[in-house]
Design a protein that fits this description.
Helices cover about 55% and strands about 10% of the residues. It is an alpha+beta fold. It has a 4-stranded mixed sheet. A hairpin with a 2-residue loop joins strand 3 (about 210-215) and strand 4. Bound molecules: fe (ii) ion (FE2) (2 copies).
Length: about 220
């Protein structure tokens, strides 16, 4: 079975993740760097493992998490779909089982809210939860507050975010701390509503309830 370590060792993967992040950085997008790939990968594995899915599914989740934003190299728009096709070639070259490649392609191709963000399999659901919970001030690249978009401001407001998976209670909780001098709790909720609803659907797909806590207020 192909492992995350093998995928990470691929030079083309490392290079394309870096270049894709550089390209979208040139048009002002927030960081989608190796750290985001690593974090999404680890969290995706953690969600699947904690909820009792097989080690194999968790490994596929870790790989999907690592590769999910590779399509930024082609274009920010539709990066889920272009990324899925890029992953196809990369994983085929590593001799991954066709069924496993399909699982990962479906997950990557459905992680964006613009493309509907549907949970087509367990890995897709875990990927949505992992990706959407990586919100943090450190991902904003712009230095000048005057040119921040509302999305930059909302990301910049977040001083801490963490996802808690409780297999006994069947509950997945996203805990976020925001600096309300940068943006209000309601503003955060408004701008990230689509992402949060996607996360709720994803949690439900995995048989869990989704909870959103912002500065200890329960919003979902
Ligand atoms: Fe993405
Ligand atoms: Fe992402």
């Amino acid at each position: 079975m192909v492992t995350l370590e093998q995928v990470k060792a691929s030079e083309i993967v490392q290079q394309y993740l870096k270049m894709g992040n550089q390209f979208i950085g040139n048009i002002g997008a927030i960081e989608h760097n190796i750290q985001h790939a690593e974090q999404t990968s680890q969290l995706c594995r953690h969600i699947l493992t904690t909820l009792g899915y097989s080690e194999k599914e968790a490994e596929l989740g870790a790989i999907a998490g690592y590769l999910h934003d590779i399509g930024n190299l082609v274009n920010r728009y539709g990066h889920g779909m272009s990324g899925a096709l890029m992953a196809f070639k990369i994983l085929l070259d590593l001799n991954m089982d066709p069924e496993d490649i399909a699982t990962i392609m479906g997950a990557i191709g459905n992680h964006e809210e613009q493309a509907g963000g549907h949970c087509v399999n367990n890995v897709a659901a875990a990927l949505i939860l992992a990706d959407k919970s990586d919100v943090h001030r450190s991902r904003v690249r712009k230095q000048d507050f005057a040119v921040f978009t509302s999305r930059d401001r909302v990301n910049y407001a977040v001083t801490h975010s963490g996802l808690n998976v409780d297999p006994q209670q069947k509950k997945i909780t996203l805990c976020i701390n925001i600096d309300t001098s940068v943006c209000s709790v309601m503003e955060y909720f408004e701008i990230f509503l689509t992402k949060m609803l996607m996360s709720r659907r994803a949690a439900q797909y995995l048989g869990c309830e989704f909870e959103l806590l912002i500065n200890d207020y329960k919003l979902l």
